[in-house]
Amino acid sequence: MTKKNELCADIGYLSINHAGENLCGDHVEKVETDDSLVLVLADGLGSGVKASILSTLTSKIISTMIAAGLKLEDCVETIAATLPVCSVRGVAYSTFTIIRIVDNKRAEIIQYDNPKSILIRNGENYEYPVETLEIGGKRITKADIELQEGDVFIAMSDGVEHAGVGIRYNFGWKRSDIIEFMKTFVPVGFTAKTLTKILLDECDRLYDGQPGDDATVCTVKMRPRTPVNLMFGPPADRADNDKVMSLFFSSPGKHIVCGGTTSTIAAKWLDKPLVPKLEYLDPEIPPTAEIEGVDLVTEGVITVSRVLEYAKDYLKDNGKYEKWSCGRDGASLIARMLFEDATDVSFFVGRAVNPAHQNPDLPITFNIKMRLVEELSDCLGKMGKKINVSYF
């Protein structure tokens, strides 16, 4: 039996809009409580403003009620009774999928009229059993699944299954085809966000870049906790050097040291040589270095600024993924470790003022360094990482 917190949920969700629409008619809401994580994917009827309002209301109401401590069944009953049915089409104004991860041990999946969520386990499709309930006059399906490491859940709106209707397929992209497509990518070890983007990019391709419906994918990947520690800058008081280094290197997980002075102090504490590399793998990013006992040694402000740039892009459309996912420069290596490997990130931030940064001709100040850490930790938090920042 998996112990609590031995696993964690890596989450990624993205949407593409109906061609010609500025607003998406689907909406994903995420809420965390003490013992659970709840994701609600709602699909509003039609597209555009009305659909966007309906899906946003649906997902907000469900997630707010759950966060307030109401039972899942009560939330579903309330929303099922509240949502009207379109008199013309005879279908609900909003459909939804709820995925609730409890203690990282089990998943509850409750669905109303959305495509059945996919579970890929051990590289194969796992058809989990569902029970059908009548709640508020509506047919709801419910599943309760014991979680295993590596489980990947893929929830989607019906715009994904409609991809290619009348273009590449007569009846759209079948569920079995979607499963076969994703089975190729899941074992590679991609993050939930990357898996989501792979599926949506293919969906957009099948629509020939002109989606006939809003399409949303939400992926949840169960993975073991992986801590990464990043040290950025030396302590304000030199007398604290040994104490901070001891704290940093005794923390479990991988260790990244950023900054010339910081890496010199780390090498001295470890009693290992600091071996600089001379090759500029990216003309704008200073070369990395090596210290035995440190996973990655990089320059400071310029490198971390680029990592922040990648982090902001990752939270949008992840358009710069190809650059940092394959790059061997310091910023790309940090990005991979923080965005893909880490589940928990601890920053050890030195408050020492670098004399070199006081040159008025250089656009680098102490405040910039502090802001870099604040913004990067905020971005990583939005990626779902657990963040701890310590200042020295």
Short description:
The protein is of the alpha+beta class. The protein has helices spanning 48-67, 72-82, 158-161, 175-183, 192-206, 241-250, 260-270, 301-315, 321-326, 330-341, 366-382; strands spanning 7-16, 26-32, 36-44, 94-102, 106-112, 118-121, 124-125, 131-135, 138-146, 152-156, 215-224, 227-232, 254-258, 275-276, 289-290, 296-298, 344-349, 386-391. Helix content is 33%, strand content 27%.
Relevant terms:
392 residues; alpha+beta; 6-stranded antiparallel sheet
Question: Strands, helices and their partners?
Answer:
Layout: E1 7-16, E2 26-32, E3 36-44, H1 48-67, H2 72-82, E4 94-102, E5 106-112, E6 118-121, E7 124-125, E8 131-135, E9 138-146, E10 152-156, H3 158-161, H4 175-183, H5 192-206, E11 215-224, E12 227-232, H6 241-250, E13 254-258, H7 260-270, E14 275-276, E15 289-290, E16 296-298, H8 301-315, H9 321-326, H10 330-341, E17 344-349, H11 366-382, E18 386-391
Parallel strand pairs: 12-13, 12-17, 13-16, 17-18
Antiparallel strand pairs: 1-11, 2-3, 3-4, 4-5, 5-9, 6-7, 6-10, 8-9, 10-11, 14-15
Helix pairs in contact: 1-2, 8-10, 8-11
